[in-house]
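anyone seen this seq b4? input:
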Amino acid sequence: MTGPNPVFISTTPVLASLDIARTVAFYARVLGAKSIHAQPGEYGIVSLGGLELHFWACTDAAIPKLTSCRIQVAGISALHAQCLAQNAVHPNGGLCCQPWGTQEFSFLDEDGNCVTFYEVQQAAPAS
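predicted toks r here
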């Protein structure tokens, strides 16, 4: 006999970092994240409102450039302007509407991790 079906609650991205302290400071400066944990050479955690981003220490500079995650937000235009002011918007990831119903842009941290922020757009009322 098996129990009830599992219920998935949330997800926590874990991105590579070449320097945990620098990465945590970057997310605090650019996004206003709160530092939860920063153990140099080991592991870091920042909080962005109701979600966390985790970082594992790595020494291969190629790894962060190959990783990414997506984060749903409200207020995408303000966040985009904030990231533009910090020169953190991906050169090919400006704010745009996607055919799957989101408005989004991509952000690059100092190690090259790509984070795509997206906001679900309201569907137009049926005529």
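The first strand starts at residue 14 and ends at 17. The chain has two helices and eight strands. kinda curious what u guys think
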